[in-house]
């Protein structure tokens, strides 16, 4: 897979986890269907190597994208395919998100072999997740739960569950569905029960700003409704000074042809039992400017509830 065949016009840089490869191959086949010759360049990122610490402690989500950007920079690849939720709010100078594909299921899901749902987990049950967003929302619903860190790719996480290290784990439904693992899901959290993070379930296609050859093809793959929704979500995070050490949820859905409903919640990073700050804003959002201003206003509404207290903790 690493070999680059001469006849390939374009190369996609991807991480090598099963999910990342599925996503890259998905984009590869969409581009091939448009008559392009497209190869893959598999890479390991720092985010894949460091598995013993939570991401917020080792430099955040950018760890999953940096090596791919270097491949674009050096001309070894032309396109990077990312889970949008792993893409930092601000891209480095010279790079841009050229397109976002139609979103898969954005919900979080509970995988727990021995129980039917979160509500049926026994008192004090052990739930695995390293996402502060998931931790704060779980503890707000079930303060009795014992939350333990869980990192690694999807297969690793499921293996740790199957070995009995946890009673339940929480994962994104999108990844499980893409890998044919949906039968393992015991409960889908509604977007109200557990608000997804910005970009969850969507794929982002990144290129170098000065590399326009793929543009028309990426425009053809782009999904406008998803783009506006994720732009609103990402604007919440950007406006709050988003980092992945922040337990922030932001999820926008189309509740009418031109109306976005944006739900956001901010948990406390070091005291997850503190109540979530939670807002819902509904706006006509027919274009990018309106979607982004919805996101910023949602961030301001969180600030009015006292977000500063949650963001600036020692
Ligand atoms: N943080 C890792 C990550 N990045 C994207 C997905 C799933 C697919 C998606 O949300 O698009 C996952 C796994 C998870 O959170 O369970």
TrEMBL record:
Cite the cofactor comment. Binds 1 dipyrromethane group covalently.
What gene, per UniProt, encodes this protein?
Answer: hemC
Entries under InterPro entries matching the protein: HemC (IPR000860), Porphobilin_deaminase_N (IPR022417), Porphobilinogen_deaminase_C (IPR022418), Porphobilinogen_deaminase_C_sf (IPR036803)
Record-listed S-(dipyrrolylmethanemethyl)cysteine modification sites: 244
Q: Does the keyword Oxidoreductase apply?
A: no
The UniProt subunit note reads as follows: Monomer.
Which residues, if any, are the signal sequence? none
* Further comment: The porphobilinogen subunits are added to the dipyrromethane group.
Please state what the protein is called.
Porphobilinogen deaminase
**Enzyme Commission identifier(s):** 2.5.1.61
Q: Where are the annotated coiled coils located?
A: none
Q: Which reaction does it catalyse?
A: 4 porphobilinogen + H2O = hydroxymethylbilane + 4 NH4(+)
Enzyme type, top EC level: transferase
Which pathway does the UniProt entry assign to this protein?
Porphyrin-containing compound metabolism; protoporphyrin-IX biosynthesis; coproporphyrinogen-III from 5-aminolevulinate: step 2/4
């Amino acid at each position: 897979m690493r070999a680059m065949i001469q006849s390939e016009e374009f190369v996609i840089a991807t991480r090598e986890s099963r999910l990342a490869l599925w996503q890259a191959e998905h984009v590869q086949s969409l581009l091939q269907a448009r008559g392009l010759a497209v190869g893959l360049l598999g890479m390991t990122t720092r985010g894949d190597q460091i598995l013993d610490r939570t991401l917020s402690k080792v430099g955040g989500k950018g760890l999953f994208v940096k090596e791919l950007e270097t491949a674009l920079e050096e001309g070894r690849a032309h396109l990077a395919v990312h889970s949008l939720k792993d893409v930092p709010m601000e891209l480095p100078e010279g790079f841009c998100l050229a397109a976002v594909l139609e979103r898969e299921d954005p919900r979080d899901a509970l995988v727990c072999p021995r129980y039917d749902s979160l509500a049926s987990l026994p008192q004090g049950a052990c739930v695995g997740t390293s996402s502060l967003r998931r931790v704060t929302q779980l503890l707000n619903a079930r303060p009795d739960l014992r939350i333990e860190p869980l990192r690694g790719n999807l297969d690793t996480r499921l293996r740790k569950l199957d070995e009995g290290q946890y009673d339940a784990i929480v994962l994104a439904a999108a990844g499980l569905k893409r890998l044919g693992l949906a039968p393992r899901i015991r409960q889908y959290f509604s977007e109200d029960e557990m608000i997804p993070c910005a970009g969850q379930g969507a794929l982002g296609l990144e290129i170098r700003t000065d590399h326009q050859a793929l543009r028309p093809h990426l425009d053809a793959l782009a999904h406008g409704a998803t783009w506006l929704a994720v732009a609103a979500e990402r604007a919440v995070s950007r406006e709050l000074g988003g980092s992945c050490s922040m337990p922030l949820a932001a999820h926008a859905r189309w509740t009418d042809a031109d109306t976005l409903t944006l739900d956001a919640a901010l948990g406390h990073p070091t005291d997850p039992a503190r109540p979530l700050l939670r807002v819902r804003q509904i706006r006509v959002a027919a274009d990018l400017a309106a979607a982004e201003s919805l996101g910023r206003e949602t961030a301001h509404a969180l600030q009015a509830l006292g977000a500063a207290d949650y963001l600036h903790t020692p």
